[in-house]
């Protein structure tokens, strides 16, 4: 199931932060968000903005999970941020146990997660960034993520 897509122009970092602030209140425990798009398109920047919008204290850093593959952040609800770019296949992804983090009530935000949608538990809000011009397409792959898309569409 693929819901209709929303498209946002993100000409400035401020526009990206504003979109994160609009999305944050629509999110619930255990939601899955996939960030895709080329290197430098703003996946990690968006993840940082979303953590701030979910109430992460300014003193807490949000490093890129490029080397340490998963970071846990004490946002509300709590959020785990992963980057699967360096992984070579489903067996390695399975080992990370990311679906269990969702079972624990954590929002799961995954850069380069699209090939592993089902392993991550499915029903994903897919955020696809593009460069030149900077844009974000938002769609859902299931019932819960479709509701988030509708909520965001109603606000924007
Ligand atoms: N509108 C925008 N939204 C997000 N990032 C932007 C924007 N304009 C410029 N940037 C810059 O682009 C870079 C995006 O890098 P990053 O988030 O690490 O990308 P990725 O994780 O997709 O490889 C950052 O240096 C950020 O400051
Ligand atoms: Mg990144």
In short:
With 156 residues, the chain is of the alpha/beta class.
Describe this structure in words.
Helix 1 crosses helix 2 (43-53). The chain has helices spanning 13-23, 43-53, 90-96, 98-103, 143-155; strands at residues 6-9, 32-36, 70-73, 79-83, 107-111, 124-130, 135-140. The longest helix is centred in the C-terminal third of the chain and has 13 residues, at 143-155. The chain is 31% helix and 23% strand. It contains five helices and seven strands. It is an alpha/beta fold and 156 residues long. The chain has a single domain, classed as Rossmann fold, CATH 3.40.50.300. Strands 1-7-6-2-5-4-3 form a seven-stranded mixed β-sheet. Residues 10, 12-13, 15-16, 37, 39-45, 134 line the site of adenosine-5'-diphosphate.
Structure characteristics:
23% strand, 7 strands, Rossmann fold, globular, 156 residues, seven-stranded mixed sheet, binds magnesium ion, alpha/beta, single chain, binds adenosine-5'-diphosphate
């Amino acid at each position: 199931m693929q819901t209709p897509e929303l498209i946002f122009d993100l000409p400035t970092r401020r526009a990206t932060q504003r979109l994160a602030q609009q999305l944050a209140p629509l999110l619930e425990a255990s939601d899955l968000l996939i960030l895709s798009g080329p290197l430098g398109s703003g996946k990690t920047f968006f993840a940082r903005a979303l953590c701030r919008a979910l109430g992460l204290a300014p003193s807490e850093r949000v490093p890129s999970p490029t080397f340490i593959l998963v970071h846990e952040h004490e946002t509300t609800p709590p959020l785990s941020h992963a980057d699967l770019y360096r992984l070579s296949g489903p067996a390695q992804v399975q080992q990370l146990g990311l679906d269990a983090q969702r079972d624990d009530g954590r929002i799961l935000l995954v850069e380069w997660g699209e090939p592993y949608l089902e392993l991550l538990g499915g029903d994903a809000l897919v955020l696809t960034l593009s460069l030149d011009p900077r844009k974000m397409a938002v769609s859902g792959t299931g019932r819960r993520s479709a509701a988030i898309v509708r909520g965001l569409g109603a606000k924007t």
